[in-house]
Design goal:
Distance between the termini: 14 Å
Radius of gyration: 21 Å
Shape: elongated
Number of helices: 6
Structural class: mainly alpha
Order of helices and strands: HHHHHH
Low-confidence stretches: none
Number of strands: 0
Strand content: under 5%
């Protein structure tokens, strides 16, 4: 995988989920609805309920995994900031939100302190922080 990454190229797809699992579950829900409309009986209606439950389950599992990654990123970035930031900013690390820590992971070591200070002062969100990064630090581990 190339090392170069930027704000425009950092988003990633998980092909098995985005291009197979979720489309199949979505098509299944649509087919179940069509069948239930054409031949309304208890089994057809139950099939619609199960189809939506399966799609919901797949989405929730994906969101749980992303939330777990967010928590790991917060820990990694707090450790990184502990070693890179001077004392006045180091004491304020706990004021950063998970969202801000996730955005800051792309900042190079040299610009981290300035972005942390700005994020705290201006209450920047993840997107605003990522757009402010000048020297992008690639993250190829996120799915």
């Amino acid at each position: 995988m190339p090392d170069t990454q930027s704000y425009r190229s950092h988003a990633r797809f998980d092909p098995p989920f985005h291009f197979f699992v979720f489309p199949v579950l979505l098509i299944n829900a649509i087919v179940s609805i069509v069948i239930a409309v054409r031949t309304p009986d208890a089994y057809a209606v139950w099939s619609v309920v199960v189809a939506f439950a399966l799609a919901g389950m797949a989405l929730k599992m994906r969101l749980y995994a992303l939330r777990n990654q967010d928590r790991l990123i917060r820990i990694e970035e707090r450790l990184r900031m502990q070693s890179l930031l001077a004392e006045p900013l180091r004491a304020r690390i706990s004021e950063l939100t998970i969202d801000q820590c996730i955005g800051l992971r792309f900042a190079s070591d040299g610009e981290l302190a300035g972005l942390v200070e700005r994020a705290l002062r201006e209450n920047l969100n993840r997107k605003q922080i990522k757009q402010a990064v000048q020297t992008w630090r690639a993250d190829h581990c996120r799915i």
